[in-house]
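User: Some background: our group keeps a shared notebook of sequences we're curious about, and every so often someone picks one and asks for a predicted structure to add to the entry. Today it's my turn. The entry only has the sequence so far, pasted here. Could you supply the structure so I can complete it?
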Amino acid sequence: MSTQVEAPDVWLSVPARAENVAVVRQALAGLCEALLAEPRAVADVKLAVTEACTNVVVHAYPNRQGLMEVEARPDGRTLTVVVRDHGQGIVPRADSPGLGLGLPMIASLSDAVEIRGGADDGRTEVIMTFGLDRAGEAPR
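Assistant: Of course. Here's the predicted structure to add to the notebook entry:
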């Protein structure tokens, strides 16, 4: 008799600090490996999630401390990852330290991306979906 084991879900709530981006990245890499994701999929998840978390660290809480929440939900051979903050929302910033390529990069690495929230409600969610069977070598 075969029993099917439910894939683990991951939920993290950590202070939005640079050192915690690596914690989230490692947790999701471990989940991807437990789900037997292809190396290319693992690399794409790690890079997209790193970028989404870095956006939280840099942009969400400019004048205060806050939390970064990350959820990962496997469904068959698909993984949905949500990176959430309760900061100022997505607003244009003239003093932004980046080149503005983060969200387009996330979109190119994921199969689907949705951004919810904004300046009005102070909550932003970046919802990314990845296929775990992506062919090809992981970038080096």
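Suggested note for the entry: The chain has a mean pLDDT of 86. Residues 10-91+98-131 form a domain with the Heat Shock Protein 90 fold (CATH 3.30.565.10).
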